[in-house]
Amino acid sequence: MDDFPPSTEAAPVTSHGHAESHGGHDDHGHEHHQLGFWRAYVFSTDHKVIGIQYMFGGLISLFFGFCLMLLMRWQLAFPNEALTWANASGHMGYQLDQILYHLGLSGVSPTIPVAIPPDPNHPPLLEMIFGKDQMPGGIMTPDFYNTLGAMHGTIMVFFGIVPLGFAAFGNYVMPLQIGAPDMAFPRLNMGSVILFYLSAVIMFLSFFVPGGAAKSGWTSYTPLATISDQPQLITPHFLELFNFLPVWVTTETPSYSGYLWNMHLFWWHQGTAFTWPMWLTGQSVWIIAMAFNITSSLLSSVNFITTIVQLRVKGMGWMRMPFFCWTQFVTAFLLLLAFPPLEAAAIMQLMDRLTGSSLFSPGGLVVSGQPLPGNGGGSPLLWQHLFWFLGHPEVYVLILPGLGIIAEVVANNSRKPLWGYNYMIYGLMVLGFLSMIVWAHHMYLTGMGTAVSAFFQFTTIIISVPTILILSSLIISLWGGSIRFTTPMLWATAFLPLFGIGGLTGIPLAFNAPDTFLHDSYYIIAHFHYVIAPGTMFALFAGIAYWYPKATGRVMNETLGHLHFWPTMILMNCIFFPMFLQGMAGMHRRMYDGGATYELLNQNVLHWNSFISESAWLMGLAQIPFIINFCFSWKYGRKVSDNPWEATTVEWSAPSPPPHGNFIGVPVVYRGAYEYSVPGHDKDFTPQTEPPTRTQPTPIPGPMPADERIIGLPHLS
Amino acid sequence: MEIPYTITARPDTGLTNGKLGVWLFLASEVMLFGALFTAYIFMRLGAEQGLWPDHIQDVRLGLCNTILLIISSITMVWAWVALKERKFNTYRLALAVTIFCGAAFLCVKGVEYHSKFVHYGFFIKEDAMEKYRPELDKMNAFYAAVPSQHAFEVRGHWENKADSAATAFVVHPDAKPGYLLDLSKKPEAKTAEEPVAGEGKGEEEITIAKDDVERWGNLLPAYGTYYAMYFTVTGLHALHIIGGLVVMLYFLGPGSALYRRNPEQLTNRIEVTGIFWHFVDLVWITVFPILYLT
Description:
Number of domains of chain B: 2
CATH class of the domain at 57-82 and 117-219 and 281-363 and 374-639 in chain A: Mainly Alpha
Shape of chain B: elongated
CATH superfamily of the largest domain in chain B: Cytochrome c oxidase, subunit III, four-helix bundle
CATH architecture of the domain at 57-82 and 117-219 and 281-363 and 374-639 in chain A: Up-down Bundle
Oligomer: heterodimer
Strand content of chain A: under 5%
Helix content of chain B: 40-55%
Order of helices and strands of chain B: HHHEHEEEEEHHH
Distance between the termini of chain A: 59 Å
Largest sheet of chain B: 6 strands, antiparallel
Strand order of the largest sheet of chain A: 1-3-2
Largest interface: A-B, 79 and 69 residues
CATH topology of the domain at 57-82 and 117-219 and 281-363 and 374-639 in chain A: Cytochrome C Oxidase, Chain A
CATH class of the largest domain in chain B: Mainly Alpha
Radius of gyration of chain A: 28 Å
Largest sheet of chain A: 3 strands, antiparallel
Structural class of chain A: mainly alpha
Shape of chain A: globular
Helix content of chain A: 55-70%
Radius of gyration of chain B: 25 Å
CATH architecture of the largest domain in chain B: Up-down Bundle
CATH superfamily of the domain at 57-82 and 117-219 and 281-363 and 374-639 in chain A: Cytochrome c oxidase-like, subunit I domain
Number of strands of chain B: 6
Strand content of chain B: 5-15%
């Protein structure tokens, strides 16, 4: 029945296949307007819409995770006080009075306010939101404190920073920078963003399952994570509505006489109560949400790498790609290769929780006088290995896109080419490779053995070399530039020293001996927050301000940008710098009362707790100008041209905002990414897409292989 | 707007987008299964004495599955070649055979899982073991000491499972070295005097008092770490098989309509599916020795 397509030859192959397929661009560009609301904004396959979707999802997660931390800071500053308006305003008034007293404006020394106990008749707002089990009368339970800690970490890392730095900016900017019409797999891209939103919704809803959300830290160390959040008896009134339904009846199944594994996979009656099934308890939901998140990241990283390899326009050789694209490329590889082991580990932990196996639990554990279920034979160390095999590359997944954004902003605003562009890229590749073999420096305290520790000390110290190379190149790039202090540049200049603090304070942690003391102290908290909060997040703010005109055609307000930047920069240091002091004094990071129990040991640093907390709350207020700026500039910002920053990279040659298909015609790249202040040119920037203006015949980039030969030359024109 | 290089390869990379994408995806799959295999090695090296069973699987079922998957890989290539030659009917036949082999694989896997569900293991307390040891020896039944749990493990068919009031287990124990199914080959006797293992199977039973048993259970993940790894690895692999089957069923049915519009694109898609399918095959070829042949 070979009646239809009789041809035996392949579809027509043309050497300019991509150019021809671009030809119809203008016709197709208008399809965009015919799409309905759902196809255009919700289930869109356009990389720009998807980037903005990630942007919103990431910013909301970031805000949510920040709020969790603000709640925790209350407990740390004022342990076991009810978080009510009366108490909060009392403390606020006290601080204001104190400032007035010290300024000499008030003669009376204020007295520390006495905590007002909660009124059982009027439950505070937080009790109504999180329930009696978690915040009775507004006082945080230890379990809920742990929940907040675990969820803050998880949400910030997996639902805030990665979706922003990698997915949002990567999706929006990267295809534009390489001149592609879209991502290589647009529908897969839509799948990624749907999976991401699904995982975020599941994760956020886990606060409201009986027993609360996951509470074993963002690292979910076993066996703690295996035994936490057991099924429990609940009396949910709404479930009584379903009493007419047939219910799952357990029959007596053979089980171990020594101990019973309480694995209820389904609801069933016990009188008027139901057991909440194991697979819907906090930690299990955490795993399920993470599985969706990991899948989303994996699909995205496949898409990113394919796009960068396949869809670079003519003339865009590897060494002409903007540094930002390089960071996305390396980041995508890290996600691609490091995330699956965590997925495997998550599956195994889910097995432990749902089937009662003990892959991660050794035998003979006793908790609260009860022998732990399971047959033993597992290894908690295995979980740590699998987790940190992701966990450490994940650190670079968080920071590399930030470095990329900063490189773009620095080059653009110092009006100079990036110093050492080639070496930055080589450094980046070395960094990517090394980040896969340093993971066990998170595990020095586990007693892996000195030989293993020695290996990981060695690699950890080596990895600081490419990091410092990149950071130094960025700093030297400023040298002799005519710097424009735009809002993005403010963030970038603050990024360099603050990220430097974060990086350099990591070096003592790389060594076994100091790490033994500093591990799990506030020093660690300060160290990695300096890397991620004033590091990556400053870069993200820089990136938002930098590419905002591209996405909207309008620029963000400079005054509001300054109002956002200065308080944030100062308060960020007020929050995290004292933590170094607390950590070096030996304060443990996971104490639920902020170390008050061990007051004798911590007395010299304990007073910083309230200072840090108040700085954090003020920093929350300092984000208001940003939110206003972000929302209102969309509609009311000053309209600007397609290239308001006078930048060189390809995305600025597209209209703002770029239409479906991105470019008018097909861009062709003639030069490297950062041709700023080229001598002999009438303006201080030469876009990559600008054809050479020499009179003598210039090699117009021909087919790819020929082009690859000349891209090694740093200055073509 | 059209994405370039979906059908024709990019000249300088020599790849279509789909092909590069699936190879990258497989790289991540390698890391996924690699992590599980690493975990397997980790567990096995750290296993306490007596808690890591060997030769528990029926090799013949595993071998049968291996052959099924290899055949399916061959027919997958056949399907792709047929499409390249624009022989649509041959393509459909080859793809159908591939799907059949995949489905048969899952059926065999189901038989194997079922044999675990109905098979039981009993940990007899160390001090009670002497009561049963002579009888077990006489039957040449398998038992293994588990010093860390002060118990001896015996596996077998639990004959009086339905009788919930019974105070003893009536067990039909496995022969050394503990093959699960009676189909299995009887191991060679070591010396001429020693009776052949498994001799008298089917007739002999042993009665073990419930009080003498530390714990018991069917061979589910909760029973032991080996079983947990077994179900995790093979379960995940079976999910991959199911995923592949869904994709192939699509290309056998609605997806094959693409042949009318753009046969080359369908050929590319089948090639990409095939690359994935070969990988699933390859994973099995790793699983087979580490779970069945040891």
